[in-house]
């Protein structure tokens, strides 16, 4: 009898374990994850996907991943086409929510060219030679390193051992060039070469072919060239559609190698000029500065690439001053692209300085809550003309400074992120509206500042003018560096990932001039001009062209800010 009871008990236990395992195996939901939310559209950088069940059980090897509703082979993705890509995972009839990954184009600062776009694989005499120019058009080939498929080569010449496409770039320090594609073709009796294998569909871009035999005899004029097996007239191809085109040549029945040509849509532009203010004092000192953005490319800043025009006259800077009372029309041009609307600035003899608000955001790349104020407040307001915004990094952050920690302690702050407006520890902000509402209606003080980059130094010529006599003031000069790149911890915005890879950090506090955090004494007499000239030393690790000066006028009694000014290194800002 005892043996029967023992067997029955074992059977019941087996049934309960089976039921438990069935429940454990039951998949109720799928969650898709990505190790990054942004990748470079360079055909190399990739995102890796994973999938888990509701109990965090790994389903990566069992699910089917899709990108933009198309099946993805495996769980990694890379592309050379900028854009937004939507990913999802499914298993049986269960589908996950979508996640989005953005592929962005890296901005090149060097211009790489080659003497040919195609070579013959295995031909010891067929070399492609590269040349590089900087943004000013100066040849810097001898100062650059060259890379083929991300591997450094010796010198600036390359020959291919095997057939296929090779990606070439050049680097100088932290700068890099555009990418060139070199086509390596199989050696044959008839050789077809082309000057470029990537074209834009703009009605002007073209590919020019040449045909040779192995003795280097030029057969171009006597050969027939084909695009996608259809003959063309002459040796020039101007595309009429986007896509991949196959080019070949025929000479007396001898077929050439095949050359692949990719045709892409050109970048679309809507250039818009942004001015620091629309009213200018006509004293020859006040200045209006301007930026140019492309609203069809996420408001990308093109200030350093465009040409600015004042009443149709080309300027060599992105600012101007005047002694005339009149209206000025400002436009910008990039290649064939021009601004559709003119921006009008009016000059007057009446002195009306611009009021501005200054705030400091205490943040850290290590701080997962900090994107709560960095993304919707700092990033949205920092380029507004009447806002001077400073990112003060602290804690275990490579951008942290001793001066920043002194400010944090002086305000009696308890944690990150925190925004302090106007250096008033009792005026803290958690939204854009609070800061916008803190812009004064007027100010008696104006500052016109001109800067010149000289090596690792910044020469500053400043004019201060007040409509009132003001004593017991201080002036503070802060050096900040813009567009610093670092990963950012993030627990606020899941769609950006954690961390946010290669996040751009704006206007990061570096140091004060003469290490004077709270400034030096100053007094102003009504309607009298005060001139100050000084030189600011820049650290060799900073990019001078990304540095800015923030200048504060504060009350000596409590160090709160009366007004502020910001000026980009190498540029100028007005009252």
TrEMBL record:
Record InterPro entries: Ig-like_fold (IPR013783), Invasin/intimin_cell_adhesion (IPR008964), Omp28 (IPR021615), Thioredoxin-like_sf (IPR036249)
Protein name, entry field: Thioredoxin domain-containing protein
Entry annotated with the keyword Hydrolase: yes
Entry keyword set: Hydrolase, Protease, Thiol protease, Virulence
Entry-linked SUPFAM superfamilies: Invasin/intimin cell-adhesion fragments (SSF49373), Thioredoxin-like (SSF52833)
Keyword Ribonucleoprotein: no
Single GO molecular function: cysteine-type peptidase activity
Family per record: Belongs to the peptidase C25 family.
Organism annotation: Porphyromonas cangingivalis
Single GO BP term: proteolysis
A Pfam entry, by short name: Omp28
């Amino acid at each position: 009898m005892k043996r029967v009871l023992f067997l029955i008990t074992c059977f019941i236990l087996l049934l309960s374990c089976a039921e438990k395992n069935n429940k454990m195996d039951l998949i109720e939901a799928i969650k898709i994850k990505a190790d990054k939310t942004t990748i470079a559209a360079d055909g190399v950088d990739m995102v890796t996907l994973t999938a888990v069940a509701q109990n965090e059980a790994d389903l990566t090897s069992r699910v089917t991943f899709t990108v933009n509703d198309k099946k993805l082979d495996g769980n990694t993705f890379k592309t050379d086409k900028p854009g937004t890509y939507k990913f999802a995972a499914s298993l049986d009839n269960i589908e996950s929510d979508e996640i989005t990954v953005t592929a962005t184009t890296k901005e090149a600062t060097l211009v790489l060219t080659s003497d040919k776009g195609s070579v013959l694989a295995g031909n010891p005499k067929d070399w492609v030679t590269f040349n590089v120019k900087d943004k000013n058009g100066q040849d810097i080939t001898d100062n650059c390193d060259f890379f083929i498929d991300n591997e450094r080569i010796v010198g600036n010449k390359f020959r291919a051992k095997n057939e296929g496409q090779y990606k070439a770039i050049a680097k100088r320090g932290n700068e890099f060039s555009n990418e060139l594609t070199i086509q390596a073709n199989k050696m044959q009796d008839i050789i077809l070469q082309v000057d470029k294998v990537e074209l834009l569909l703009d009605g002007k871009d073209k590919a020019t072919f040449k045909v040779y035999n192995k003795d280097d005899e030029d057969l171009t004029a006597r050969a027939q060239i084909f695009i996608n097996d259809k003959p063309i007239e002459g040796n020039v191809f101007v595309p009429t559609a986007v896509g991949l085109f196959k080019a070949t040549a025929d000479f007396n029945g001898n077929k050439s190698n095949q050359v692949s040509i990719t045709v892409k849509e050109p970048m679309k532009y809507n250039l818009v000029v942004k001015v620091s203010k629309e009213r200018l004092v006509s004293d020859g000192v006040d200045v209006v500065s301007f930026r140019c953005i492309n609203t069809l490319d996420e408001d990308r800043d093109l200030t350093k690439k465009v040409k600015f025009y004042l009443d149709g006259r080309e300027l060599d800077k992105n600012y101007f001053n005047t002694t005339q009372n009149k209206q000025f029309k400002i436009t910008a041009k990039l290649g064939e692209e021009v601004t559709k609307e003119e921006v009008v600035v009016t000059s007057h003899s009446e002195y009306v300085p611009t009021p501005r608000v200054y705030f400091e955001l205490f943040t850290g790349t290590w701080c997962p809550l900090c994107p709560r104020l960095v993304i919707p407040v700092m990033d949205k307001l920092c380029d507004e003309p009447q806002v001077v915004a400073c990112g003060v990094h602290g804690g275990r952050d490579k951008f942290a400074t001793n001066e920043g920690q002194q400010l944090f302690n002086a305000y009696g702050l308890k944690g990150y992120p925190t925004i302090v407006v106007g250096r008033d520890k009792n005026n803290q902000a958690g939204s854009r509206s609070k800061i916008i509402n803190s812009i004064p209606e007027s100010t008696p003080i104006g500052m016109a500042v001109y800067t010149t980059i000289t090596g690792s130094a910044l020469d500053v010529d400043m004019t201060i003018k007040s409509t009132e006599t003001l004593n017991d003031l201080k002036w503070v000069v802060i050096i900040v560096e813009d567009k610093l790149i670092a990963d950012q911890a993030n627990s606020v915005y899941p769609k950006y990932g954690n961390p946010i890879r290669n996040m751009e950090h704006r206007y990061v506090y570096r140091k004060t001039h003469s290490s004077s955090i709270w400034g030096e004494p100053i007094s102003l007499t009504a309607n009298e001009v005060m001139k100050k000239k000084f030189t600011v030393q820049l650290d060799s690790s900073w990019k001078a062209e990304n540095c800015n000066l923030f200048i504060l006028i504060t009350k000596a009694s409590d160090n709160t800010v009366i007004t502020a000014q910001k000026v980009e290194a190498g540029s100028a800002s007005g009252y």
